[in-house]
Amino acid sequence: MLANLRIIDKVKHEAPLGKSLHALLVFSLQCYTKTEKPLKPRFMFDKADYDKLAVTLSKINWAELFKESKCNTVWATFMSEILGEIQCNVPKSKPPKKHRRPIWMNSDTLKILKKK
Fold this sequence. Notes:
The chain is of the alpha+beta class. 35% of the residues lie in helices and 11% in strands. The chain is built from 4 helices and 2 strands. The chain has helices spanning 50-58, 62-65, 71-89, 107-115, and strands at residues 8-14, 24-29. A two-stranded antiparallel ribbon has the order 1-2. α1 (50-58) runs antiparallel to α3 (71-89).
């Protein structure tokens, strides 16, 4: 009946309810849900100020920054400059608010409720 029997615990067989012939089973079900990570704001590149970004990047003396001969150091310097300008010139979205429905209510459950 179940693929993972470790999720059921403390099964009790009790007398039927009323005049029913069916036995009553009482059990404890151990189930776990995934905890959702809080959503972070994202960069909205479609609303970025690319003109300002181009001007600020053109003002940087790249030759002076790249005097270092080690590739990893040059790459780290380049990335820090680019990411710094992205932080300044690309707006971020606000993280969405908490879900309105319970975590157990997935798309299949919603379909069943709509049919009902």
